[in-house]
């Protein structure tokens, strides 16, 4: 499994202004083995992954309704001990929740393991899985697909619905916070390339 401290160090070289924002995850990673950081029974928190999937043709993002959280969000979830690295976890979660496997990763660094964002947020109690409230330390990645899928294979245990929405619509969702501004800057950087 990856050295998450190294990933965060490289991330902070790109986003040095986030040093204070990343203090909690660095503190979380400081004192235990990585196996403990992905363990669902560690109620200090878990390392998780998220994926923003962008359709180049429609210029829209995939938006999933997560049953446990009662809200629309991007695909994502927990890192499993069977995952060889963090990107394996991202691709596995995307495949499990949507059935999508043909994706292009949009990277902000030569090292493809560096996410476009790292976010710490509190997850409310999950009564279905009997989990108390806890932190998620989320590594977020950006992907593109050529066009939006009219039908995707959603994981009906976790996902109720899906839709594709514009970045303007996403920016109205408080759960997305500052990530929208980052994505807009990335789009601006790559606007002359075929990946967008």
What are the SSEs and their pairings?
Elements: H1 4-14, H2 23-29, H3 34-37, E1 45-55, E2 60-66, E3 71-73, E4 76-78, H4 86-98, E5 104-106, E6 117-123, E7 134-145, E8 159-165, H5 167-170, H6 179-189
Parallel strand pairs: 1-7
Antiparallel strand pairs: 1-2, 1-4, 2-3, 2-8, 5-7, 6-7
Q: Any descriptors?
A:
globular, 27% strand
Radius of gyration: 16 Å
**Low-confidence segments, ≥5 residues, pLDDT <50?**
none
Distance between the termini: 30 Å
Structural class: alpha+beta
Overall geometry:
globular
Q: What's the overall average pLDDT, rounded?
A: 88
The biggest sheet, with number of strands, parallel, antiparallel or mixed sense and barrel status, is:
8 strands, mixed
Number of strands: 8
SSE pattern, N- to C-terminal = HHHEEEEHEEEEHH
Assess the beta-strand content as a share of residues: 25-35%
Tally of alpha and pi helices: 6
Query: What proportion of the residues is helical, as a percent range?
Result: 25-40%
Describe this structure in words.
Helices cover 26% and strands 27% of the residues. It has helices spanning 4-14, 23-29, 34-37, 86-98, 167-170, 179-189, and strands spanning 45-55, 60-66, 71-73, 76-78, 104-106, 117-123, 134-145, 159-165. Strands 1, 2, 3, 4, 5, 6, 7 and 8 form an 8-stranded mixed β-sheet that branches. Strand 1 and strand 2 (60-66) form a beta hairpin. The relative contact order is 0.20. The model has no long low-confidence stretch (mean pLDDT 88).
How would you briefly describe this protein structure?
By secondary structure, this protein is an alpha+beta fold. The protein is built from 6 helices and 8 strands; from the N terminus they run H-H-H-E-E-E-E-H-E-E-E-E-H-H.
């Amino acid at each position: 499994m990856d050295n998450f401290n190294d990933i965060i160090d490289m991330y902070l070289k790109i986003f040095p202004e986030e040093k204070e924002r990343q203090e909690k995850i660095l503190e979380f990673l400081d004192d235990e083995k990585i196996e403990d950081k992905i363990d669902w029974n560690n109620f200090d928190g878990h390392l998780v992954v998220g994926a923003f999937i962008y359709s180049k043709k429609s210029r829209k993002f995939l938006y999933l309704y997560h049953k446990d959280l009662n809200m629309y969000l991007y695909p994502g979830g927990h890192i499993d001990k069977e995952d060889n690295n963090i990107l394996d976890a991202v691709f596995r979660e995307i495949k499990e929740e949507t059935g999508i496997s043909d994706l292009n990763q949009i990277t902000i660094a030569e090292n493809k393991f560096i996410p476009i964002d790292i976010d710490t947020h509190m997850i409310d109690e999950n009564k279905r899985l009997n989990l108390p409230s806890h932190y998620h330390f989320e590594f977020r990645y950006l992907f593109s697909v050529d066009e939006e899928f009219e039908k995707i294979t959603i994981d009906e245990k976790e996902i109720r619905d899906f839709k594709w929405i514009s970045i303007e619509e996403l920016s109205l969702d408080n759960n997305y916070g500052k990530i929208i501004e980052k994505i807009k800057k990335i789009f601006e950087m790559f606007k002359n390339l075929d990946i967008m």
